[in-house]
């Protein structure tokens, strides 16, 4: 009798656990279904983070009422190309806007021309980062102060950015955002502090020989943490209670997954 009861209980528990697992899988699949459906109905007009869809939507819009409207719309498209990761195309589009202004001898508001130049400079810096720090990443990439193997091998993007920042600073020498960015660009090119014009230089951005300060070592690549997604957040915690820090990383991408990295 006892054996029969034990067998009955075992079978009951087995079916119960199986039912719980099946229900959990069912709910999980339903969640995936809902999220997949939501990802197809994103409105790119209001969701500024759905960059590729927003770019496609913008390219279908017509703004040919006058040349000013057309140029402004082209600049907006260029900005969305940058947001979507089409960096070289964004550079080409910004340059096209400036070329149209020059060829037609237009006189748009100075604020518009400078905003295009500003974005063109940032986009060239971004291209340099993509070529040197994403496609050819190493332990010193993107760590300020830039030095050693963190200096760009391909200097075309930073060189073009420097040309633009020199032009912008000649018009507004007290713009400290441009001052900082031109110092950063010279540093990325390996020309800070020796070759940056003294009038733009921000001193003491390199490590001091007389001051010892601890630094973190970049180990993300060798630990498998070099995962690319759309911003999001992260949690660093000892999740499995083994004394090591684990990481959970989320993404704002509607079709991206949460990533769990167990150390």
UniProtKB/TrEMBL annotation:
Matching entries from Gene3D superfamilies are given as: Tetratricopeptide repeat domain (1.25.40.10)
Protein name per the record: Tetratricopeptide repeat protein
UniProt organism field: marine metagenome
Phylogenetic placement of the source organism: unclassified sequences, metagenomes, ecological metagenomes
């Amino acid at each position: 009798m006892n054996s029969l009861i034990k067998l009955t209980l075992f079978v009951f528990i087995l079916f119960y656990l199986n039912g719980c697992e099946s229900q959990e899988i069912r709910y999980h699949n339903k969640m995936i279904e809902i999220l997949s459906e939501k990802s197809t109905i994103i409105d790119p007009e209001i969701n500024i983070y759905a960059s590729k869809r927003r770019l496609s939507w913008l390219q279908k819009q017509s703004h040919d009422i006058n040349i000013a409207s057309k140029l402004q719309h082209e600049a907006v498209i260029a900005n969305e190309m940058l947001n979507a990761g089409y960096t070289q195309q964004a550079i080409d589009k910004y340059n096209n806007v400036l070329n149209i202004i020059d060829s037609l001898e237009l006189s748009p508001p100075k604020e518009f021309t400078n905003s295009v130049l500003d974005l063109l400079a940032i986009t060239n810096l971004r291209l340099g980062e993509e070529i040197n720090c994403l496609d050819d990443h190493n332990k010193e990439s993107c760590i300020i102060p830039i030095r050693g193997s963190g200096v760009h091998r391909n200097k075309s993007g930073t060189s073009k950015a420097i040309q633009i920042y020199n032009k912008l600073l000649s018009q507004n020498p007290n713009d400290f955002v441009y001052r900082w960015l031109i110092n950063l660009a010279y540093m990325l090119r390996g020309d800070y502090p020796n070759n940056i014009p003294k009038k733009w230089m921000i001193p003491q951005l390199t490590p001091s020989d007389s001051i010892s300060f601890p630094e973190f070592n970049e180990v993300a690549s060798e630990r498998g943490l070099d995962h690319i997604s759309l911003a999001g957040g992260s949690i660093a915690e000892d999740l499995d209670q083994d004394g090591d820090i684990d990481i959970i990383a989320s993404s704002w991408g509607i079709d991206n997954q949460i990533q769990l990295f167990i150390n």
